[in-house]
Specification:
The two termini are 13 Å apart. This protein has strands at residues 10-13, 16-17, 20-33, 45-58, 68-74, 84-94, 97-98, 106-121. It is an all-beta fold. Strands 1, 2, 3, 4, 5, 6, 7 and 8 form an eight-stranded antiparallel beta sheet that branches. The protein has one domain.
């Protein structure tokens, strides 16, 4: 996949595109230790539960702490690309406001994914 700029990224929350300026998403899994006496002195692990969470910044105040909604996060939304599109249901857990004296006001949002995060290409 060629390098992509973030300028064409899209975030869709509950069916509407917000005025998003940046987003991050972390997809992870737990490593569950299953070491036993039969492990020959080496630690052993198996994949555990999968989770995902992230943040996004917007120019629009959503006033939605506690909101649970369908969400889609797409990197470089240009047509005909194979850039990742991640979607699932999120809960907005934090909503800080950044109000500098010499710049634009931005609203930050922290979310936790609930259920599966589906990955596809656009």
């Amino acid at each position: 996949m060629p390098a992509v700029t973030g300028k064409a990224g899209v975030v869709n929350i509950g069916g509407s595109v917000t005025r998003v300026t940046a987003f991050t998403m972390d997809r992870n899994t737990e490593a569950v230790e299953v070491t036993s006496f039969d492990s020959s002195g080496n630690r052993e692990y198996v994949a555990g539960l999968f989770g995902w969470a992230g943040t996004f910044n917007a120019l629009k105040f959503l006033n939605q702490v506690g909101l649970q909604a369908a969400a889609t996060f797409q990197v470089g939304a240009a047509a005909g690309t194979d850039n990742p599109k991640l979607s699932g249901s999120i809960i907005i857990t934090n909503e800080p406001v950044n109000c500098p004296v010499d710049g634009r006001v931005e609203y930050g949002y922290t979310f936790t994914g609930t259920g599966a995060c589906t990955a596809a290409t656009a």
